[in-house]
Specification:
The protein is an alpha/beta fold and 220 residues long. It has one domain (3-218): 3-Layer(aba) Sandwich (Rossmann fold), CATH 3.40.50. It has helices at residues 3-14, 33-38, 54-62, 75-88, 103-106, 136-145, 159-170, 200-207; strands at residues 18-19, 44-48, 67-72, 93-97, 112-118, 146-156, 176-181, 213-218. Strands 1-4-3-2-5-6-8-7 form an eight-stranded mixed beta sheet, with helices on both faces. Helix 1 (3-14) packs across helix 4 (75-88) and helix 3 (54-62) runs parallel beside helix 4.
Length: 220
Amino acid sequence: MSRVKLERFALNARRPDIVEPGKDAYGNTAGKWHETFFGNASPITLEMGCGKGEYTVGLAQRYPGRNFLGLDIKGDRIWRGSTRAEALGLRNVGFVRTRAEALLDHFAPGELDEVWITFPDPRPRDRDIKRRLTSPRFLSLYQQVLRPGGLVHLKTDDGPLYEYSLETVQSRPGATVLAHTADLYATPELLPHAEDIQTHYERRFRQAGIPIKYLQFQLS
């Protein structure tokens, strides 16, 4: 492991906005995020696979009356998001270093108001379908941690993943598709902050002329 990564991991270990293995809060915050982490009762939004935290931090900056968490397994990526949040003086944002499958270890039923899935790995091989973040397996996890009426958002450049996700949600009992488009920037009214908050990959895809797909739905 490089010296730079070791230095960043050491910083992560001291930062109160990062919940990760080895810290008391890791695995012990479910049901207590409002009380012990944010210190308020504002709605909580979680970004799955947040990477460098661009979207999580962007949302926190735009919506100061809400709380935001980014979840990712890579500590180096989380360090970047935490560093930017610190530079901006944001207190309504945090990060959880864990695997996506461990969602129920960290959140209580109904604790979240929204889930964002931004440009996930499309997992194109059939044997990897269950690892897609919009597979029935993960939809069941989201349904448990979201409050009744909570929202799930997907943004992706990948056409097959978008179609798979739309069909999976439409065929799920009790799920409701609220909005969907195969070209978000041709229908910007679907997402008010679309132009203002974009990930690094999103900007690259747009520059390459690849349409951004968007799906919004409820699971209750």
